[in-house]
Amino acid sequence: MSAIKSSVAKVSPPCLFNMTFSEVQSNRYRELSHKLKEDLKQEAHAEETVWLLDHLTWVHFKLMNYDEALQFNNESLTKNLSLVCIGNKIHVLNKLGREIETDQYMQFLATPSENDTALAKAQQAYSCLRLGGAKNLQRAIDNFEDIIEKLHGSYRFLSLFYLGLSYRRLVHPNTLSCTQCCVSIEDYVKSAQHCFYEVIEKSGHPVLVARAYSELVVLYHDASSILGKSDYLWNDQSIETLIDKALTTGGQDAKVLTACGRILCLGNEDNVRKGIDLLTKALQLKESTTAYHNLAVGYIQLVKHERHTDVCQEAAKVTDKVDAEDAMINKAIENLKTAIKISDNYNLPATFDLGKLYKSLGNVKEASVTNYC
Asked: InterPro entries, per this entry (predicted)?
């Protein structure tokens, strides 16, 4: 048994267990597990399904849910016999003490091809992206950039999409404040644009194209909020044009509707109403904690526009006191509660917004339950 454990520890082909991350707490793994399971219902690619299953294997191993980790790994194996999947299998079986099976799978690890190794590194990059945080996003970018030219077909476009998403997520005030890289915001924006537009122009995959457009919508908004104005980066293309293109190609995709709806809900009253419609449609297609949360934000924004006051200010500062029975406020509360419930209480932004809303209504007791006060 000790000889097998020693061999497993030296498994060289890239798999998720070869990676080390510091300061990742169990709550983050639980939150990530929920998000990955939610994404399994909305995958854009068959290949992405494998990546999600492999990542769920690793996450549940970290949570010491070894039997569940093995279930996800077995499902992944039915779809693709990849280096990552086999490497994950070996580590899980070894942990469960199933040494004969561990030894059998070790036989699969012959010298891998360059393509197999590149695909495994792409999955490692994807895992860094899913963990989030400035350091992991930069690590994802470095790994994707290192192997992107070695990939072909659908895996190349999937990796390009997630490379673009890694750059896009760095263009956010909270992430930028933790970034020690000297690269300018404009360079991050241009790098993300390059990836998304290549997916749009060359992938031929309608859902991936629509999601690339929707990520460009988010990128446009985030870049503008940081730079004040980012029109010069978009060749006179407006955010409205990008939203139209996203909805034209992906009007039946819940992720696209959610992304576009979220951004619209941050705009003027007409846009907020459009955003609410898109988020409502997204939830009719697929339930998600993100859509429920942003739908609640939309209702709060709508009240803000209609009453010309900020519902989420401290109660003492609100000039036009919000009526707790207001239908839109009740809808906001209902959607925030649902967002929290279906996330198994791991949607902390929704929890914060619920506490903030309760406090603005003068309901300090309910606000304290959410740990806002």
From this structure: TPR-like_helical_dom_sf (IPR011990)
